[in-house]
Amino acid sequence: MKISLPYSKNKRYLTGIDWIIHVLNCMTLKETGAGFMSQVVFELHGKADALQTESSLSAFMKKHPLLNGHSSRDFNLAPYWKIPTEGTGKISFETVHITNANKKDAFFDDVLIILEKGINRPFKNRKEHVAFHLITQGEKSYVAMTFDHLIFDARNAEAFLNMFQRDWEGEKDSGNITITEPAHLSMWMDKFKAGQLVNRAFLQIADRVPPRVLPLPPGKKGFKFKILSFGTKETEAIAENAFNEAGYLMLMPYALAASVCALHGIFAGRGISSGDYVIPVSIDTRNREEVNKDLFFNHVSFFIFKAEASDASNFLALLKSIKEQMYTQVKSDLPGDICKASLLMRIAPASLLGRLLKIYFKGEIASFCFSYVGKTAYTSPYFMGNKIKNIFHMPRTPVPPGIGIFFQQSNEKLNVILSYLDGMLNADEGEVILTSLKSRLGVE
Amino acid sequence: MNKESKNIEETLIKEVAAILSMEQGSVGPEVPLHEMGLDSLGFVELLVVIEKTFKIRLMESGLTREDFKTIRSLAAKIRIMT
After folding, report:
1. Is A307 helix (H, G, I), strand (E, B) or coil?
2. Against a cut of 0.90, is the pTM above it?
Protein backbone atom coordinates (compact mmCIF):
# COMPACT_ATOMS: atom_id res chain seq x y z
CA MET A 1 0.00 0.00 0.00
CA LYS A 2 1.40 3.37 -1.02
CA ILE A 3 0.65 5.98 1.61
CA SER A 4 2.18 9.40 1.24
CA LEU A 5 2.51 11.60 4.29
CA PRO A 6 3.50 15.24 4.35
CA TYR A 7 5.87 15.63 7.25
CA SER A 8 6.02 12.52 9.33
CA LYS A 9 4.55 9.09 8.89
CA ASN A 10 3.28 9.27 12.45
CA LYS A 11 1.41 12.51 12.12
CA ARG A 12 -1.64 13.65 10.16
CA TYR A 13 -2.83 17.21 10.68
CA LEU A 14 -6.53 17.52 11.38
CA THR A 15 -8.72 19.64 9.14
CA GLY A 16 -11.08 22.22 10.59
CA ILE A 17 -14.01 19.83 10.06
CA ASP A 18 -12.08 17.10 11.94
CA TRP A 19 -11.63 19.57 14.79
CA ILE A 20 -15.34 20.42 14.87
CA ILE A 21 -16.00 16.66 15.08
CA HIS A 22 -13.57 16.58 18.04
CA VAL A 23 -15.54 19.35 19.71
CA LEU A 24 -18.85 17.53 19.15
CA ASN A 25 -17.21 14.37 20.49
CA CYS A 26 -16.13 16.16 23.71
CA MET A 27 -19.60 17.70 24.19
CA THR A 28 -21.37 14.38 23.63
CA LEU A 29 -18.93 12.55 25.92
CA LYS A 30 -19.54 15.09 28.67
CA GLU A 31 -23.33 14.81 28.41
CA THR A 32 -23.70 11.07 27.86
CA GLY A 33 -20.50 9.31 28.95
CA ALA A 34 -19.79 8.12 25.37
CA GLY A 35 -18.56 10.06 22.37
CA PHE A 36 -19.75 11.00 18.91
CA MET A 37 -19.83 7.48 17.49
CA SER A 38 -21.81 5.74 14.82
CA GLN A 39 -22.50 2.19 13.74
CA VAL A 40 -22.78 0.71 10.27
CA VAL A 41 -24.84 -2.48 10.24
CA PHE A 42 -24.90 -5.23 7.61
CA GLU A 43 -27.99 -7.40 7.61
CA LEU A 44 -26.95 -10.70 6.04
CA HIS A 45 -28.67 -13.73 4.60
CA GLY A 46 -26.78 -16.68 6.05
CA LYS A 47 -24.93 -17.43 9.22
CA ALA A 48 -21.63 -15.61 9.57
CA ASP A 49 -18.88 -17.65 11.17
CA ALA A 50 -17.86 -15.89 14.40
CA LEU A 51 -14.29 -17.16 14.59
CA GLN A 52 -13.54 -16.50 10.95
CA THR A 53 -15.13 -13.02 11.07
CA GLU A 54 -13.19 -12.03 14.16
CA SER A 55 -9.83 -13.32 12.93
CA SER A 56 -10.23 -11.77 9.45
CA LEU A 57 -11.26 -8.38 10.84
CA SER A 58 -8.50 -8.53 13.42
CA ALA A 59 -5.83 -9.25 10.77
CA PHE A 60 -7.16 -6.43 8.59
CA MET A 61 -7.29 -3.92 11.43
CA LYS A 62 -3.66 -4.69 12.23
CA LYS A 63 -2.69 -3.36 8.80
CA HIS A 64 -4.06 0.08 9.74
CA PRO A 65 -2.21 1.50 12.75
CA LEU A 66 -3.94 4.84 12.13
CA LEU A 67 -7.05 3.30 13.70
CA ASN A 68 -5.23 3.10 17.04
CA GLY A 69 -4.08 6.71 17.01
CA HIS A 70 -5.17 9.65 19.10
CA SER A 71 -5.28 13.42 18.76
CA SER A 72 -2.50 15.67 19.95
CA ARG A 73 -1.35 19.27 19.41
CA ASP A 74 1.78 20.27 17.54
CA PHE A 75 4.26 23.01 18.54
CA ASN A 76 2.67 25.17 15.81
CA LEU A 77 -0.69 24.81 17.62
CA ALA A 78 -2.25 22.74 14.84
CA PRO A 79 -3.98 19.62 16.17
CA TYR A 80 -2.90 16.35 14.57
CA TRP A 81 -3.61 12.65 14.71
CA LYS A 82 -0.75 10.71 16.21
CA ILE A 83 -0.35 7.45 14.32
CA PRO A 84 1.35 4.54 16.09
CA THR A 85 4.10 2.75 14.22
CA GLU A 86 2.31 -0.59 14.43
CA GLY A 87 -1.31 -1.64 14.42
CA THR A 88 -2.83 -3.98 16.93
CA GLY A 89 -4.62 -7.19 16.09
CA LYS A 90 -6.58 -6.99 19.33
CA ILE A 91 -10.07 -5.85 18.49
CA SER A 92 -13.28 -5.56 20.47
CA PHE A 93 -15.50 -8.24 19.00
CA GLU A 94 -18.77 -9.21 20.61
CA THR A 95 -20.85 -12.20 19.53
CA VAL A 96 -24.50 -12.64 20.48
CA HIS A 97 -26.65 -15.57 19.41
CA ILE A 98 -30.41 -15.07 19.67
CA THR A 99 -32.26 -18.29 20.30
CA ASN A 100 -35.68 -17.41 21.63
CA ALA A 101 -37.26 -15.12 19.04
CA ASN A 102 -40.21 -16.75 17.32
CA LYS A 103 -41.59 -13.93 15.21
CA LYS A 104 -39.66 -11.86 12.66
CA ASP A 105 -40.53 -8.56 14.38
CA ALA A 106 -39.54 -9.90 17.77
CA PHE A 107 -36.19 -10.96 16.30
CA PHE A 108 -35.45 -7.49 14.98
CA ASP A 109 -36.50 -5.90 18.29
CA ASP A 110 -33.97 -8.13 20.04
CA VAL A 111 -31.32 -7.25 17.44
CA LEU A 112 -31.99 -3.54 17.91
CA ILE A 113 -31.54 -3.78 21.68
CA ILE A 114 -28.16 -5.47 21.19
CA LEU A 115 -27.10 -2.92 18.56
CA GLU A 116 -28.14 -0.08 20.88
CA LYS A 117 -26.02 -1.54 23.66
CA GLY A 118 -23.09 -1.71 21.24
CA ILE A 119 -23.35 1.88 20.04
CA ASN A 120 -23.84 3.26 23.56
CA ARG A 121 -20.80 1.50 25.01
CA PRO A 122 -17.83 3.89 25.28
CA PHE A 123 -14.55 2.81 23.71
CA LYS A 124 -12.14 1.19 26.14
CA ASN A 125 -9.46 3.85 25.87
CA ARG A 126 -8.41 6.84 23.78
CA LYS A 127 -6.66 4.57 21.28
CA GLU A 128 -9.68 2.40 20.52
CA HIS A 129 -11.93 3.78 17.79
CA VAL A 130 -13.56 0.72 16.25
CA ALA A 131 -15.51 -2.22 17.71
CA PHE A 132 -17.40 -5.08 16.05
CA HIS A 133 -20.56 -6.98 16.91
CA LEU A 134 -21.92 -10.16 15.38
CA ILE A 135 -25.53 -11.13 16.05
CA THR A 136 -26.89 -14.41 14.73
CA GLN A 137 -30.19 -16.20 14.78
CA GLY A 138 -30.72 -19.33 12.73
CA GLU A 139 -29.59 -18.65 9.19
CA LYS A 140 -29.57 -14.89 9.53
CA SER A 141 -26.92 -12.57 10.91
CA TYR A 142 -26.01 -8.93 11.51
CA VAL A 143 -22.45 -7.64 11.48
CA ALA A 144 -22.03 -4.16 12.96
CA MET A 145 -18.99 -1.91 13.11
CA THR A 146 -19.14 0.78 15.78
CA PHE A 147 -16.76 3.57 14.83
CA ASP A 148 -15.55 6.83 16.18
CA HIS A 149 -16.41 9.83 14.00
CA LEU A 150 -12.89 11.06 14.76
CA ILE A 151 -11.58 8.54 12.23
CA PHE A 152 -14.43 7.85 9.80
CA ASP A 153 -17.45 9.62 8.39
CA ALA A 154 -20.38 7.40 7.39
CA ARG A 155 -19.29 6.70 3.82
CA ASN A 156 -15.67 6.20 4.82
CA ALA A 157 -16.77 3.51 7.26
CA GLU A 158 -18.61 1.77 4.42
CA ALA A 159 -15.61 2.17 2.11
CA PHE A 160 -13.28 0.76 4.79
CA LEU A 161 -15.45 -2.36 5.08
CA ASN A 162 -15.57 -2.53 1.29
CA MET A 163 -11.76 -2.55 1.27
CA PHE A 164 -11.84 -5.29 3.90
CA GLN A 165 -14.20 -7.33 1.70
CA ARG A 166 -11.89 -6.95 -1.32
CA ASP A 167 -8.96 -7.98 0.85
CA TRP A 168 -10.93 -10.99 2.14
CA GLU A 169 -11.71 -11.99 -1.46
CA GLY A 170 -7.96 -11.91 -2.13
CA GLU A 171 -7.97 -8.82 -4.32
CA LYS A 172 -4.71 -6.92 -4.47
CA ASP A 173 -4.67 -3.50 -2.84
CA SER A 174 -4.88 -0.69 -5.40
CA GLY A 175 -2.45 1.27 -3.20
CA ASN A 176 -4.26 4.51 -3.82
CA ILE A 177 -5.19 5.61 -0.30
CA THR A 178 -4.27 9.12 0.73
CA ILE A 179 -4.03 10.30 4.30
CA THR A 180 -2.03 13.42 3.58
CA GLU A 181 -3.14 16.72 5.04
CA PRO A 182 -0.95 19.79 5.38
CA ALA A 183 -1.16 21.96 8.51
CA HIS A 184 -2.91 24.74 6.55
CA LEU A 185 -1.02 27.41 8.45
CA SER A 186 -0.78 29.85 5.53
CA MET A 187 -3.16 32.28 3.77
CA TRP A 188 -4.63 33.57 7.02
CA MET A 189 -6.42 36.50 5.35
CA ASP A 190 -8.33 34.08 3.19
CA LYS A 191 -9.44 32.16 6.28
CA PHE A 192 -10.38 35.35 8.16
CA LYS A 193 -12.52 36.46 5.21
CA ALA A 194 -14.22 33.07 5.12
CA GLY A 195 -14.80 33.42 8.88
CA GLN A 196 -16.43 36.81 8.33
CA LEU A 197 -18.79 35.35 5.71
CA VAL A 198 -19.70 32.41 7.96
CA ASN A 199 -20.29 34.83 10.84
CA ARG A 200 -22.66 36.90 8.68
CA ALA A 201 -24.53 33.82 7.46
CA PHE A 202 -25.00 32.53 11.01
CA LEU A 203 -26.14 35.92 12.30
CA GLN A 204 -28.72 36.01 9.52
CA ILE A 205 -30.06 32.61 10.61
CA ALA A 206 -29.90 33.37 14.33
CA ASP A 207 -32.89 34.96 16.03
CA ARG A 208 -33.40 36.94 19.22
CA VAL A 209 -34.64 33.77 20.89
CA PRO A 210 -32.96 30.34 20.86
CA PRO A 211 -34.12 27.82 18.26
CA ARG A 212 -36.90 25.43 19.15
CA VAL A 213 -35.39 22.46 21.02
CA LEU A 214 -36.57 19.47 23.00
CA PRO A 215 -35.23 19.44 26.58
CA LEU A 216 -32.38 16.99 27.21
CA PRO A 217 -33.24 14.21 29.66
CA PRO A 218 -31.49 14.39 33.04
CA GLY A 219 -28.46 12.19 33.72
CA LYS A 220 -26.15 10.40 31.33
CA LYS A 221 -28.36 8.52 28.90
CA GLY A 222 -27.72 6.31 25.90
CA PHE A 223 -29.33 6.61 22.47
CA LYS A 224 -32.43 4.87 21.20
CA PHE A 225 -33.11 4.20 17.53
CA LYS A 226 -36.08 3.69 15.28
CA ILE A 227 -35.52 2.43 11.77
CA LEU A 228 -37.69 2.63 8.68
CA SER A 229 -36.46 0.40 5.85
CA PHE A 230 -38.30 0.94 2.61
CA GLY A 231 -38.41 -1.66 -0.15
CA THR A 232 -37.39 -0.96 -3.74
CA LYS A 233 -40.93 -0.11 -4.88
CA GLU A 234 -41.53 2.20 -1.89
CA THR A 235 -38.17 3.88 -2.53
CA GLU A 236 -39.15 4.48 -6.16
CA ALA A 237 -42.51 5.86 -5.00
CA ILE A 238 -40.73 8.28 -2.60
CA ALA A 239 -38.43 9.45 -5.42
CA GLU A 240 -41.48 9.99 -7.64
CA ASN A 241 -43.30 11.92 -4.89
CA ALA A 242 -40.15 14.01 -4.31
CA PHE A 243 -40.07 14.82 -8.01
CA ASN A 244 -43.75 15.77 -8.13
CA GLU A 245 -43.67 17.94 -5.01
CA ALA A 246 -40.09 19.23 -4.86
CA GLY A 247 -38.79 18.93 -8.43
CA TYR A 248 -36.16 16.97 -10.32
CA LEU A 249 -33.35 15.55 -8.11
CA MET A 250 -34.72 17.29 -5.01
CA LEU A 251 -34.91 14.26 -2.73
CA MET A 252 -32.67 15.81 -0.06
CA PRO A 253 -34.77 19.00 0.46
CA TYR A 254 -37.91 16.83 0.29
CA ALA A 255 -36.59 14.48 3.00
CA LEU A 256 -35.56 17.43 5.18
CA ALA A 257 -38.94 19.14 4.82
CA ALA A 258 -40.70 15.87 5.70
CA SER A 259 -38.47 15.54 8.79
CA VAL A 260 -39.26 19.09 9.96
CA CYS A 261 -42.99 18.40 9.55
CA ALA A 262 -42.74 15.13 11.49
CA LEU A 263 -40.85 16.70 14.40
CA HIS A 264 -43.02 19.81 14.39
CA GLY A 265 -45.96 17.61 15.39
CA ILE A 266 -44.06 16.52 18.53
CA PHE A 267 -43.07 20.07 19.50
CA ALA A 268 -46.65 21.25 18.96
CA GLY A 269 -47.98 18.33 21.00
CA ARG A 270 -45.73 19.32 23.90
CA GLY A 271 -46.71 22.95 23.68
CA ILE A 272 -43.16 24.09 22.81
CA SER A 273 -43.78 27.18 20.71
CA SER A 274 -40.81 29.51 21.14
CA GLY A 275 -38.30 29.99 18.32
CA ASP A 276 -37.83 28.50 14.86
CA TYR A 277 -36.10 25.32 13.79
CA VAL A 278 -32.36 25.37 13.08
CA ILE A 279 -31.01 22.28 11.38
CA PRO A 280 -27.35 21.60 10.53
CA VAL A 281 -27.11 19.25 7.57
CA SER A 282 -24.02 17.20 6.83
CA ILE A 283 -23.51 16.07 3.25
CA ASP A 284 -20.71 14.07 1.70
CA THR A 285 -20.17 15.61 -1.72
CA ARG A 286 -17.55 13.13 -2.90
CA ASN A 287 -18.13 10.47 -5.51
CA ARG A 288 -17.35 6.81 -4.84
CA GLU A 289 -13.80 6.96 -6.24
CA GLU A 290 -12.94 9.96 -4.08
CA VAL A 291 -14.28 8.18 -0.98
CA ASN A 292 -12.12 5.15 -1.71
CA LYS A 293 -9.02 7.33 -2.10
CA ASP A 294 -9.57 9.42 1.02
CA LEU A 295 -10.67 6.72 3.38
CA PHE A 296 -9.98 8.10 6.82
CA PHE A 297 -11.20 11.06 8.90
CA ASN A 298 -14.08 13.35 8.02
CA HIS A 299 -14.93 14.77 4.63
CA VAL A 300 -18.47 16.01 5.12
CA SER A 301 -19.64 19.52 4.25
CA PHE A 302 -22.06 21.46 6.39
CA PHE A 303 -25.13 23.44 5.46
CA ILE A 304 -27.34 25.13 8.01
CA PHE A 305 -31.05 25.57 7.44
CA LYS A 306 -33.68 27.55 9.25
CA ALA A 307 -37.29 26.43 9.10
CA GLU A 308 -39.69 29.03 10.38
CA ALA A 309 -42.21 27.50 12.74
CA SER A 310 -44.99 29.25 10.83
CA ASP A 311 -43.98 27.28 7.69
CA ALA A 312 -43.69 23.93 9.48
CA SER A 313 -47.29 22.94 8.93
CA ASN A 314 -47.32 24.18 5.34
CA PHE A 315 -45.27 21.60 3.48
CA LEU A 316 -44.98 23.44 0.18
CA ALA A 317 -43.89 26.70 1.83
CA LEU A 318 -41.34 24.77 3.87
CA LEU A 319 -40.02 22.99 0.80
CA LYS A 320 -39.68 26.25 -1.11
CA SER A 321 -37.79 27.85 1.77
CA ILE A 322 -35.39 24.90 2.13
CA LYS A 323 -34.69 24.82 -1.61
CA GLU A 324 -34.06 28.58 -1.64
CA GLN A 325 -31.66 28.31 1.30
CA MET A 326 -29.83 25.42 -0.33
CA TYR A 327 -29.48 27.39 -3.56
CA THR A 328 -28.22 30.49 -1.73
CA GLN A 329 -25.73 28.52 0.36
CA VAL A 330 -24.36 26.64 -2.67
CA LYS A 331 -24.11 29.92 -4.62
CA SER A 332 -22.24 31.68 -1.83
CA ASP A 333 -20.23 28.51 -1.07
CA LEU A 334 -21.10 28.54 2.61
CA PRO A 335 -19.92 24.91 3.08
CA GLY A 336 -16.54 25.90 1.56
CA ASP A 337 -16.30 28.95 3.83
CA ILE A 338 -17.16 26.84 6.90
CA CYS A 339 -14.34 24.49 5.88
CA LYS A 340 -11.84 27.35 5.53
CA ALA A 341 -12.96 29.23 8.63
CA SER A 342 -12.86 26.09 10.76
CA LEU A 343 -9.12 25.84 10.05
CA LEU A 344 -8.71 28.94 12.20
CA MET A 345 -10.87 27.48 14.96
CA ARG A 346 -8.40 24.63 15.48
CA ILE A 347 -6.36 26.95 17.66
CA ALA A 348 -9.18 26.99 20.23
CA PRO A 349 -9.26 24.13 22.73
CA ALA A 350 -12.26 21.85 22.23
CA SER A 351 -13.97 23.00 25.47
CA LEU A 352 -13.72 26.68 24.46
CA LEU A 353 -14.87 26.05 20.90
CA GLY A 354 -17.83 24.09 22.30
CA ARG A 355 -18.91 27.20 24.19
CA LEU A 356 -18.31 29.43 21.14
CA LEU A 357 -20.53 27.23 18.96
CA LYS A 358 -23.44 27.98 21.31
CA ILE A 359 -23.09 31.76 21.12
CA TYR A 360 -24.98 32.26 17.83
CA PHE A 361 -28.09 30.40 18.93
CA LYS A 362 -28.34 31.74 22.47
CA GLY A 363 -26.99 28.72 24.31
CA GLU A 364 -28.29 26.09 21.88
CA ILE A 365 -26.74 24.51 18.80
CA ALA A 366 -29.64 23.18 16.78
CA SER A 367 -33.19 21.83 16.91
CA PHE A 368 -32.14 18.49 15.43
CA CYS A 369 -29.46 17.08 13.11
CA PHE A 370 -30.11 15.81 9.64
CA SER A 371 -28.07 14.06 7.01
CA TYR A 372 -28.63 12.49 3.66
CA VAL A 373 -25.75 10.09 3.11
CA GLY A 374 -26.93 9.05 -0.35
CA LYS A 375 -25.87 5.87 -2.04
CA THR A 376 -23.63 3.49 -0.11
CA ALA A 377 -19.88 3.36 -0.74
CA TYR A 378 -19.95 -0.41 -0.14
CA THR A 379 -20.05 -1.95 -3.61
CA SER A 380 -19.93 -5.71 -3.07
CA PRO A 381 -23.26 -7.57 -2.79
CA TYR A 382 -21.59 -9.86 -0.24
CA PHE A 383 -19.91 -9.59 3.16
CA MET A 384 -17.55 -12.48 3.82
CA GLY A 385 -19.49 -14.80 1.54
CA ASN A 386 -22.94 -13.93 2.86
CA LYS A 387 -25.36 -11.98 0.67
CA ILE A 388 -26.21 -8.55 2.03
CA LYS A 389 -29.90 -7.83 2.57
CA ASN A 390 -29.52 -4.28 3.83
CA ILE A 391 -26.94 -1.80 5.10
CA PHE A 392 -28.01 0.86 7.57
CA HIS A 393 -26.41 3.33 9.97
CA MET A 394 -27.11 4.02 13.64
CA PRO A 395 -25.42 7.33 14.48
CA ARG A 396 -25.28 8.82 17.95
CA THR A 397 -26.37 12.40 17.38
CA PRO A 398 -24.19 15.15 18.89
CA VAL A 399 -25.53 16.34 22.26
CA PRO A 400 -26.96 18.95 22.17
CA PRO A 401 -29.37 18.62 20.35
CA GLY A 402 -29.44 14.84 21.05
CA ILE A 403 -31.90 14.03 18.27
CA GLY A 404 -31.48 13.51 14.54
CA ILE A 405 -33.04 12.05 11.42
CA PHE A 406 -30.80 10.38 8.86
CA PHE A 407 -31.56 9.20 5.32
CA GLN A 408 -29.36 6.73 3.52
CA GLN A 409 -29.63 4.38 0.53
CA SER A 410 -28.40 0.86 0.11
CA ASN A 411 -29.12 -1.42 -2.81
CA GLU A 412 -31.75 0.98 -4.26
CA LYS A 413 -33.56 0.91 -0.90
CA LEU A 414 -34.03 3.89 1.36
CA ASN A 415 -33.48 3.70 5.12
CA VAL A 416 -34.58 6.39 7.54
CA ILE A 417 -33.13 6.36 11.04
CA LEU A 418 -34.43 8.32 13.99
CA SER A 419 -31.76 8.64 16.67
CA TYR A 420 -32.54 10.24 20.06
CA LEU A 421 -31.37 10.29 23.62
CA ASP A 422 -33.25 7.84 25.79
CA GLY A 423 -35.95 9.80 27.61
CA MET A 424 -36.09 12.61 25.08
CA LEU A 425 -39.17 11.15 23.39
CA ASN A 426 -41.79 9.00 25.06
CA ALA A 427 -42.71 5.59 23.65
CA ASP A 428 -45.53 6.95 21.50
CA GLU A 429 -43.70 10.01 20.15
CA GLY A 430 -41.07 7.93 18.35
CA GLU A 431 -43.80 5.98 16.57
CA VAL A 432 -45.69 9.19 15.77
CA ILE A 433 -42.58 10.60 14.07
CA LEU A 434 -42.17 7.48 11.93
CA THR A 435 -45.85 7.40 10.97
CA SER A 436 -45.78 11.07 10.12
CA LEU A 437 -42.60 10.63 8.05
CA LYS A 438 -44.11 7.73 6.11
CA SER A 439 -47.25 9.70 5.48
CA ARG A 440 -45.32 12.81 4.38
CA LEU A 441 -43.10 10.75 2.07
CA GLY A 442 -46.28 9.29 0.58
CA VAL A 443 -45.77 5.61 1.50
CA GLU A 444 -48.21 4.91 4.30
CA MET B 1 -28.04 21.12 -33.65
CA ASN B 2 -26.95 24.70 -34.19
CA LYS B 3 -23.66 26.19 -32.98
CA GLU B 4 -25.25 27.99 -30.03
CA SER B 5 -26.87 24.82 -28.67
CA LYS B 6 -23.62 22.95 -29.14
CA ASN B 7 -21.70 25.57 -27.13
CA ILE B 8 -24.26 25.43 -24.31
CA GLU B 9 -24.10 21.63 -24.33
CA GLU B 10 -20.30 21.69 -24.14
CA THR B 11 -20.42 24.11 -21.21
CA LEU B 12 -22.88 21.85 -19.38
CA ILE B 13 -20.78 18.75 -20.07
CA LYS B 14 -17.73 20.51 -18.65
CA GLU B 15 -19.60 21.56 -15.51
CA VAL B 16 -21.27 18.19 -14.91
CA ALA B 17 -17.88 16.50 -15.33
CA ALA B 18 -16.38 18.89 -12.75
CA ILE B 19 -19.24 18.33 -10.27
CA LEU B 20 -19.03 14.56 -10.61
CA SER B 21 -15.20 14.51 -10.80
CA MET B 22 -15.43 12.64 -14.10
CA GLU B 23 -13.61 12.89 -17.40
CA GLN B 24 -15.56 15.10 -19.84
CA GLY B 25 -15.52 12.23 -22.33
CA SER B 26 -17.49 10.07 -19.88
CA VAL B 27 -20.38 12.53 -19.68
CA GLY B 28 -22.95 11.59 -22.31
CA PRO B 29 -25.30 14.36 -23.51
CA GLU B 30 -28.19 11.88 -23.80
CA VAL B 31 -27.72 10.14 -20.44
CA PRO B 32 -30.21 11.22 -17.73
CA LEU B 33 -28.48 13.34 -15.09
CA HIS B 34 -29.57 11.10 -12.20
CA GLU B 35 -28.16 8.04 -13.96
CA MET B 36 -24.78 9.75 -14.10
CA GLY B 37 -24.88 10.00 -10.30
CA LEU B 38 -25.98 13.60 -9.86
CA ASP B 39 -27.80 14.13 -6.55
CA SER B 40 -29.65 17.09 -5.01
CA LEU B 41 -26.51 18.99 -4.11
CA GLY B 42 -24.78 18.36 -7.44
CA PHE B 43 -27.91 19.44 -9.28
CA VAL B 44 -28.14 22.68 -7.29
CA GLU B 45 -24.44 23.29 -8.09
CA LEU B 46 -25.30 22.89 -11.77
CA LEU B 47 -28.24 25.32 -11.46
CA VAL B 48 -25.93 27.89 -9.83
CA VAL B 49 -23.43 27.52 -12.68
CA ILE B 50 -26.26 27.97 -15.21
CA GLU B 51 -27.36 31.17 -13.45
CA LYS B 52 -23.81 32.54 -13.38
CA THR B 53 -23.04 31.58 -16.99
CA PHE B 54 -26.31 32.15 -18.82
CA LYS B 55 -27.98 34.62 -16.41
CA ILE B 56 -31.11 32.51 -16.03
CA ARG B 57 -32.48 31.08 -12.83
CA LEU B 58 -33.93 27.60 -13.26
CA MET B 59 -34.62 26.68 -9.60
CA GLU B 60 -38.28 27.70 -9.66
CA SER B 61 -38.69 28.08 -13.40
CA GLY B 62 -41.41 25.48 -13.84
CA LEU B 63 -39.31 23.37 -16.21
CA THR B 64 -40.56 19.84 -16.69
CA ARG B 65 -38.86 16.51 -16.06
CA GLU B 66 -38.24 16.23 -19.82
CA ASP B 67 -36.43 19.60 -19.85
CA PHE B 68 -34.06 18.47 -17.11
CA LYS B 69 -33.73 14.90 -18.25
CA THR B 70 -30.48 15.09 -20.17
CA ILE B 71 -27.76 17.63 -20.89
CA ARG B 72 -29.04 17.87 -24.48
CA SER B 73 -32.63 18.65 -23.47
CA LEU B 74 -31.43 21.12 -20.84
CA ALA B 75 -29.15 22.84 -23.37
CA ALA B 76 -32.08 23.17 -25.78
CA LYS B 77 -34.21 24.76 -23.07
CA ILE B 78 -31.46 27.17 -22.05
CA ARG B 79 -31.02 28.24 -25.68
CA ILE B 80 -34.72 29.12 -25.88
CA MET B 81 -34.62 31.02 -22.59
CA THR B 82 -31.50 33.10 -23.34
Report:
1. strand
2. yes
